[in-house]
Amino acid sequence: MLISRSVRFIGLITLSLVLVSGTIRTTQAQTLPRVLMIGDSIMQGYFHRSQIELAGQFVLFQPDPGSGDTDRATVYMQDWLDDGPWDVIHFNWGLHDLYTQNVNHPGVNAIPIEDYESNLRSLVPQMVASGADLVWANTTPGVDPLFPVNDVLAYNAVAAQVMSEYDIPINDLHGLLEPVQETYQATPGNIHYNTAGSTLMAGQIATSILSVHDPGVLPGPPPCGGLLCHTGANDPFLEGWLSTIDAGATEAPVIDDMGSGLDAWEVQNSSGSGKAGYFGTASLDAQALADIATGGWSMRANVRVDDLIANGYDEALAPAPGFAVRLDEADHWAILFLSTDSNGNPIAQLKGGAGLANVSDEIPISGSGYHTYEVRSQPMTTLADLYIDDTKVISDFDIGNTVDYGDQLVWGNWATGSDGAGYWNSVQFTTAPGSEFVPGDFDDDDDVDGADFLAWQRDLGDDPSMLSWETNYGFAAGASAGAMTVPEPSGFVLMILTGLGCLAFRKQETNDDSKT
């Protein structure tokens, strides 16, 4: 359909929101309007900052494979459109077309202006037919000699004519930057822009997108059973987490990860530098801290770890996927590090206390898929326990810390130099989680096993308690509903019950003998 709008130039308004992101190759698990951002390396600079400007209102995507000149776009345009539907397409081609660094024909544009116009007349109708609202971003100022200043003006004029024929509004990035180009160049004479310049463009881009498409009523964050949560392939920013995503790190939604049936949020760093983490502190208000003081806290995550790197695997447990809890008022600091062995099986290690001086043994975990990890503090103490797949594997671990660094909840690859990837199906931070009472757990170790029978035999000996132990044998605190199904009595249970029967018979026999 044709967009009935006169050509107009968009002014600048700056918005202050939080970040949301995506790429075409994956599907975001929410209902915000979708924006396809087509451009060149200039767009790479403003894409991330445009996400910040439009977070909570739109989800921004880049084409895969990436764009370049208009010749390349004619090859991939239909594929890009098929990755829709798109609510908005914000697009630009220019610098790659008018580039003059050609070893065979120096000074000649890579795509002659006549071919540039012809390509635009092929590309624009395809986008119009998609039904998306369109915004053309004209080409930013040139730099002689490789990106001739006058050629930029000529190519922009040709593009403006094509856009006018389709009533497509123009985001005048050239007009925005031309008076201040030297101020915002990445380096003198550079065609690219520094962070401030990219931020300037992002504000105007946000305004241009909002001018053509109303995002409507915005969805709130998904339901959360804890103070802060992450669920499935939902963008953590929409759930209340802030982020640090350095160069070399990536994050993206993943649907049906590895055929597991679980959606997840991928946080990966393979650069050996930088970091990628999600931080949550805003909800730690006075009430939350009071609940923590009296009832403790729990940090729980269901995650698949892939710590394989180019040079092998990381048995040294350099900071890789994991999570951390630091609470100054409670004097707590605990970090769970996750890595893998050479077969891809996870390895967990807990660190805590002042300077993270307390270090647990490495805990090997069988199976390379998803596992649940929970660090739970003990109320009114500086001790914590580690559960893996709802089984306690570390007890009474000292996380006492007297150095104030500020409250912090974080998950991902947040430490500089971390490597590997985590696929986070769920994350939950809960205050005052309490302790789960398990009938038959007579030795208070959160499960019902043979040791509890010995405790019953030593301290209780009554029939109702024995029935409680028999009914719940094999149960572990925190197990899922499926895992809570009472198992058939094992050989061990039957042996004990047989022994009890013999004892009862012998007791009765003794009583009978005493009567004769």
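Second entry:
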Amino acid sequence: LWTLVFGFFLFYLVDNAIKAASAFRELIASKNIQAEVMSSIIKVGEVALKGNDNFIAVENVALKTNLNKNKVQDERVEEECELEKILLVKSDSIINGLCPDEHTTSLSDDEVKITNVAWMIIFGDAVHNFIDGLSIGAAFTRGILSGISVSIAVLCEELPHELGDVAILIHSGMKLRKALVYNLLSALTCYAGFIIGVVLGGIGSADQYIFALAGGLFIYISFAHMIPDMNGKLEMELKQNFKNGLGIFFVQFSGILVGLVCLFFLATYNEQIHL
């Protein structure tokens, strides 16, 4: 029991530590982006001031040339041409100096968001999948039936979970291929956990502690993520379309009921089932 409680609070701490680290990274990234924007604004202001200085210098030259009556027309035409060239060059430099900074800032902001999401997916799922592998490996040391039953339970939980992770990565702006690669990397820890679970499962009562730790993980995921998401989607659908909301409730209730019935029969008739 205490191992189960320890597993619950362990994954509570891990989950919130990952969220805190991601929030800290976003805060640092936003400060860097603000600094880049301020530096670009200062550069644009300096360019504008230089343009005004050049404009004043051209006006002074034009006034001086007016003193010379023999060259008034030629000097004014030349100065007006120079003025137009200077203003065009400075305006182009302002536009070209501002637009790339805005474009780069936008790209860096998107890249930071994608990086944070991918980082949370990799480390969060890595811990989760490692414990899944531990439980599967320890279950197979008890018997084939136990291993298959635990594998099916993990599959039923992991399939929608992994699909949701891929959907989150794609929604954040990541391409499908890269999202699948990140998801695959986070799933590789399951194999390491499986090997360790097989080794530890044959040592005394270590498998009981592994199952308790994995049970704490599943309980935390259920109460912290799955049930709140299910309730949120159900409430939203009931407000928008009551009939569709009832359909979603029936599907959710049926899934929970089928899972409980399967667990009941596996626990009750475990010794009578032979493979």
